[in-house]
Protein backbone atom coordinates (compact mmCIF):
# COMPACT_ATOMS: atom_id res chain seq x y z
CA UNK A 1 0.00 0.00 0.00
CA UNK A 2 1.12 3.57 -0.56
CA UNK A 3 0.55 6.84 1.22
CA UNK A 4 -0.35 10.28 -0.02
CA UNK A 5 1.51 13.45 0.82
CA UNK A 6 -0.43 16.65 0.26
CA UNK A 7 0.94 20.01 -0.82
CA UNK A 8 -1.44 22.75 -1.89
CA UNK A 9 -4.22 20.28 -2.72
CA UNK A 10 -1.93 18.09 -4.89
CA UNK A 11 -1.33 14.44 -4.09
CA UNK A 12 1.97 12.62 -4.42
CA UNK A 13 2.58 8.90 -4.05
CA UNK A 14 5.31 7.37 -1.90
CA UNK A 15 6.17 3.75 -1.13
CA UNK A 16 5.36 3.80 2.58
CA UNK A 17 3.01 0.94 3.57
CA UNK A 18 -0.33 1.95 5.07
CA UNK A 19 -3.92 0.77 5.22
CA UNK A 20 -6.73 2.54 3.37
CA UNK A 21 -6.19 6.26 3.70
CA UNK A 22 -8.58 9.14 3.24
CA UNK A 23 -7.64 12.79 3.39
CA UNK A 24 -10.20 15.28 4.62
CA UNK A 25 -8.21 17.89 2.70
CA UNK A 26 -8.73 16.60 -0.82
CA UNK A 27 -11.13 13.62 -0.93
CA UNK A 28 -8.74 11.01 -2.34
CA UNK A 29 -8.56 7.41 -1.21
CA UNK A 30 -6.17 4.55 -1.87
CA UNK A 31 -7.54 1.04 -2.02
CA UNK A 32 -6.19 -2.51 -1.98
CA UNK A 33 -4.96 -2.41 -5.58
CA UNK A 34 -2.95 0.74 -4.86
CA UNK A 35 -4.82 2.84 -7.37
CA UNK A 36 -5.83 6.34 -6.32
CA UNK A 37 -9.57 7.01 -6.52
CA UNK A 38 -11.72 9.98 -5.65
CA UNK A 39 -13.67 9.71 -2.39
CA UNK A 40 -16.78 8.12 -3.92
CA UNK A 41 -14.65 5.61 -5.89
CA UNK A 42 -16.19 6.71 -9.20
CA UNK A 43 -12.96 8.01 -10.73
CA UNK A 44 -9.54 6.40 -11.00
CA UNK A 45 -7.12 9.27 -10.64
CA UNK A 46 -3.77 7.50 -10.65
CA UNK A 47 -2.19 4.07 -10.71
CA UNK A 48 1.46 3.50 -9.79
CA UNK A 49 3.82 2.96 -12.71
CA UNK A 50 4.71 -0.36 -11.06
CA UNK A 51 1.38 -1.98 -12.03
CA UNK A 52 2.13 -5.24 -13.82
CA UNK A 53 0.09 -7.99 -15.46
CA UNK A 54 -3.68 -7.62 -15.29
CA UNK A 55 -5.70 -4.85 -13.63
CA UNK A 56 -9.42 -5.14 -12.87
CA UNK A 57 -11.17 -1.78 -12.72
CA UNK A 58 -13.73 -2.16 -9.91
CA UNK A 59 -17.44 -2.11 -10.71
CA UNK A 60 -18.83 1.33 -9.87
CA UNK A 61 -15.96 3.29 -11.39
CA UNK A 62 -17.41 5.63 -14.03
CA UNK A 63 -14.35 7.53 -15.23
CA UNK A 64 -10.72 6.62 -15.85
CA UNK A 65 -9.01 9.94 -15.32
CA UNK A 66 -6.40 11.90 -17.24
CA UNK A 67 -3.09 9.97 -17.32
CA UNK A 68 -4.47 7.49 -14.75
CA UNK A 69 -2.38 4.58 -16.10
CA UNK A 70 0.04 6.58 -18.24
CA UNK A 71 3.47 5.01 -18.42
CA UNK A 72 2.48 1.69 -16.83
CA UNK A 73 4.80 -0.31 -19.07
CA UNK A 74 4.15 -3.54 -17.16
CA UNK A 75 0.38 -3.38 -17.69
CA UNK A 76 -0.51 -6.27 -20.03
CA UNK A 77 -4.30 -6.40 -19.78
CA UNK A 78 -7.20 -4.60 -18.18
CA UNK A 79 -10.87 -5.37 -17.54
CA UNK A 80 -13.17 -2.36 -17.68
CA UNK A 81 -16.65 -2.86 -16.18
CA UNK A 82 -19.94 -1.67 -17.63
CA UNK A 83 -20.06 1.19 -15.11
CA UNK A 84 -17.24 3.05 -16.93
CA UNK A 85 -18.61 5.57 -19.44
CA UNK A 86 -15.47 7.59 -20.22
CA UNK A 87 -11.73 7.05 -20.59
CA UNK A 88 -9.99 10.42 -20.36
CA UNK A 89 -7.15 11.77 -22.47
CA UNK A 90 -3.80 10.05 -22.03
CA UNK A 91 -5.38 7.59 -19.56
CA UNK A 92 -3.32 4.71 -21.00
CA UNK A 93 -0.63 6.75 -22.76
CA UNK A 94 2.63 4.90 -23.25
CA UNK A 95 1.28 1.59 -21.94
CA UNK A 96 3.30 0.06 -24.73
CA UNK A 97 2.89 -3.54 -23.54
CA UNK A 98 -0.90 -3.44 -23.21
CA UNK A 99 -2.06 -6.53 -25.12
CA UNK A 100 -5.75 -6.79 -24.32
CA UNK A 101 -8.67 -4.78 -23.05
CA UNK A 102 -11.84 -6.53 -21.88
CA UNK A 103 -14.83 -4.17 -22.08
CA UNK A 104 -17.97 -5.32 -20.35
CA UNK A 105 -20.11 -2.40 -21.44
CA UNK A 106 -22.93 -2.69 -23.96
CA UNK A 107 -22.64 1.07 -24.45
CA UNK A 108 -19.84 2.77 -26.33
CA UNK A 109 -17.30 4.10 -23.85
CA UNK A 110 -16.29 7.66 -24.69
CA UNK A 111 -12.60 8.11 -25.57
CA UNK A 112 -10.34 11.02 -26.31
CA UNK A 113 -8.25 10.72 -29.44
CA UNK A 114 -5.15 10.13 -27.33
CA UNK A 115 -6.58 7.94 -24.54
CA UNK A 116 -4.43 5.04 -25.75
CA UNK A 117 -1.50 6.99 -27.26
CA UNK A 118 1.52 4.72 -27.53
CA UNK A 119 -0.51 1.48 -27.38
CA UNK A 120 0.00 -0.72 -30.45
CA UNK A 121 -3.53 -0.70 -31.86
CA UNK A 122 -2.64 -3.30 -34.48
CA UNK A 123 -1.79 -5.90 -31.83
CA UNK A 124 -3.91 -5.01 -28.78
CA UNK A 125 -7.06 -7.18 -28.60
CA UNK A 126 -10.31 -5.55 -27.55
CA UNK A 127 -12.97 -7.94 -26.24
CA UNK A 128 -16.52 -6.57 -26.32
CA UNK A 129 -19.99 -8.05 -25.89
CA UNK A 130 -21.25 -9.63 -29.12
CA UNK A 131 -24.24 -7.30 -29.44
CA UNK A 132 -22.03 -4.18 -29.62
CA UNK A 133 -19.04 -5.39 -31.61
CA UNK A 134 -20.07 -3.51 -34.79
CA UNK A 135 -20.73 -0.31 -32.84
CA UNK A 136 -17.24 -0.40 -31.30
CA UNK A 137 -15.68 -1.10 -34.71
CA UNK A 138 -17.34 2.08 -36.07
CA UNK A 139 -16.99 4.29 -32.96
CA UNK A 140 -14.69 7.30 -32.82
CA UNK A 141 -11.18 6.35 -31.72
CA UNK A 142 -12.16 2.71 -31.00
CA UNK A 143 -12.06 2.16 -34.77
CA UNK A 144 -8.28 2.66 -34.62
CA UNK A 145 -7.97 -0.73 -32.92
CA UNK A 146 -7.68 -3.44 -35.58
CA UNK A 147 -8.71 -6.39 -33.36
CA UNK A 148 -12.12 -5.78 -31.80
CA UNK A 149 -13.42 -9.23 -30.96
CA UNK A 150 -16.86 -10.35 -29.81
CA UNK A 151 -16.14 -12.81 -27.03
CA UNK A 152 -18.96 -13.73 -24.69
CA UNK A 153 -16.68 -16.02 -22.67
CA UNK A 154 -14.28 -13.15 -21.93
CA UNK A 155 -16.87 -11.63 -19.62
CA UNK A 156 -17.05 -14.68 -17.40
CA UNK A 157 -13.32 -14.86 -16.73
CA UNK A 158 -11.66 -14.42 -13.42
CA UNK A 159 -7.98 -14.10 -12.59
CA UNK A 160 -7.42 -17.86 -12.48
CA UNK A 161 -8.86 -18.79 -15.88
CA UNK A 162 -8.29 -15.64 -17.96
CA UNK A 163 -5.48 -17.25 -19.96
CA UNK A 164 -7.74 -20.04 -21.21
CA UNK A 165 -9.64 -17.66 -23.48
CA UNK A 166 -6.94 -15.22 -24.44
Describe this structure in words.
The protein is mostly beta strands and 166 residues long. It has a single domain (3-165), classed as Rossmann fold (3-Layer(aba) Sandwich), CATH 3.40.50. Helix content is 6%, strand content 31%. The chain contains 2 helices and 14 strands. The protein has helices spanning 133-138, 162-165; strands at residues 3-7, 10-14, 21-22, 28-30, 36-38, 43-46, 52-56, 63-64, 74-80, 86-87, 100-103, 110-111, 125-128, 147-150. It has a 7-stranded mixed β-sheet, with no helix packed on it. The chain has a 5-stranded parallel β-sheet with strand order 7-9-11-13-14. The longest helix is centred in the C-terminal third of the chain and has 6 residues, at 133-138. It is globular and about 40 Å long.
**Radius of gyration, taken over Cα atoms and rounded to an integer in Å:** 16 Å
Tally of helical segments:
2
Please report the distance between the alpha carbons of the first and last residues.
30 Å
Low-confidence stretches: 1-25, 157-166
Q: What would you call the shape?
A: globular
CATH class: Alpha Beta
Q: Remind me, CATH topology?
A: Rossmann fold
Helix content: under 10%
How many structural domains in the coordinates? 1
Summarize the helix and strand pattern as letters: EEEEEEEEEEEEEHEH
Main sheet? 7 strands, mixed
CATH architectural label? 3-Layer(aba) Sandwich
Amino acid sequence: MTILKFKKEKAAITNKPVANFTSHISNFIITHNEALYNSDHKTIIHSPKTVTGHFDVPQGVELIGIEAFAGCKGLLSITIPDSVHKISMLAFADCENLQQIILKSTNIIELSEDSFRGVDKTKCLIYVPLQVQNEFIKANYWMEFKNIVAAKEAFELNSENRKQVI
